[in-house]
Amino acid sequence: xxxLHTSDWHLGRTLHxxxxxxxxxxxxxxxxxxVSERAIDVVVVAGDVYDRAVPAVPSVRLLGRALAGLTEHAxxxxxxxNHDSAVRLGFAAELMRPGLHLRASxxxxxxxxxxxxxxxxxxxxxxxxxxxxxxxxxxxPGGTDEPLARSHAAVVGAAMQRVRDDLAGRPGTRSVVVAHxxxxxxxxxxxxxxxxxxxxxxxxxxxxxxDSVPSTAFDGVDYVALGHLHGAQRVGPSGRLRYSGSPxxxxxxxxxxxxxxxxxxxxADGSVSVDLVPxxxxxxxxxxxxxxxxxxxxxxxxxxxxxxxxFVTDPVHPERLYTRVAEHFPHAxxxxxxxxxxxDAPTLAPVTAESDPIEVAADFVAFASGGAPSEAELxxxxxxxxxxxxxxxxx
Length: 395
Fold this sequence. Notes:
Elements: E1 2-6, E2 14-15, E3 18-19, H1 21-37, E4 42-46, H2 57-71, E5 75-79, H3 86-90, E6 100-102, E7 113-117, E8 120-127, H4 132-135, H5 152-168, E9 174-180, E10 182-184, E11 212-214, E12 223-227, E13 233-234, E14 241-243, E15 260-266, E16 272-278, E17 285-290, H6 292-296, E18 307-312, H7 321-328, E19 332-337, H8 357-369, H9 375-393
């Protein structure tokens, strides 16, 4: 069976204020063409289809266009991520066209979509993003009033146990799990390449200070199609757990990533082989650091067509800095003055959208009190942050 694994479309996302809708539309057209050309049997979309819980109308229409095109050629299975609203994404799922399966309900995570090929059936299990605070009671073992531990590992582990229980009653059936989580290699591996790599643009999903799930939680499955991390990568040495990554770069930290879609060949014996097909690049991302005179003298003109993050290193703030850089580099999206050699160079790191909120708060406590926060104080900060984040995504 030939499976196309994709995730993290983030329809509606912007890049430093630039609307990416046109570029996301180009990716959708590329993906539909790829599914047709490569004779894909099943397309799985592992969450974060939208960038926010209440998407804009153009994003909803683009998703409709994507699903209509994909279902003309293949069975399509979609699960929500932490950016999506599971309720909105899964609304009226039972009314959708044949061949389209929106697996947004926790109650259905152990009821697979079964697709047959000449080698027999393949069971596809859709695990929506599982927020521990929302599902730790509903996923607790039957016959007990005790909720699961407040962790991603606990709720994903319980969900996967339900999957394995169902799979045990399907002898000879190959299996694929589609999940949205931050998964790290199990304790048996200490190789650097086997540890999942984050990107700047991924939303923090920590609960109780922990956001990861061990890869061993997914034991017993032939292939695990993961979403959440924006860089295409495998988890662990076996190659059966993979992140497809996002189709576009959503931060300058992703500028060196090769964006792709993952085509998985699932053999009769459950073994897998993988082919990464590069996604179209609407405009490359680059970063440049130098004095203003050097930036404007022509040596960096090959970057004028790129989306740029610019660091200007003059010791003294140049006159009309931002205007001059923007005039020379029309696609510069972020311009920073980071003086080198200044007599009174700042010692504090700037707070940006990519900064860890907990670390920022801890730095402020240390600055205001003259000492690092205690564990109890950090627990209060973490709880406040998680409550604020939960209120943003409750819709």
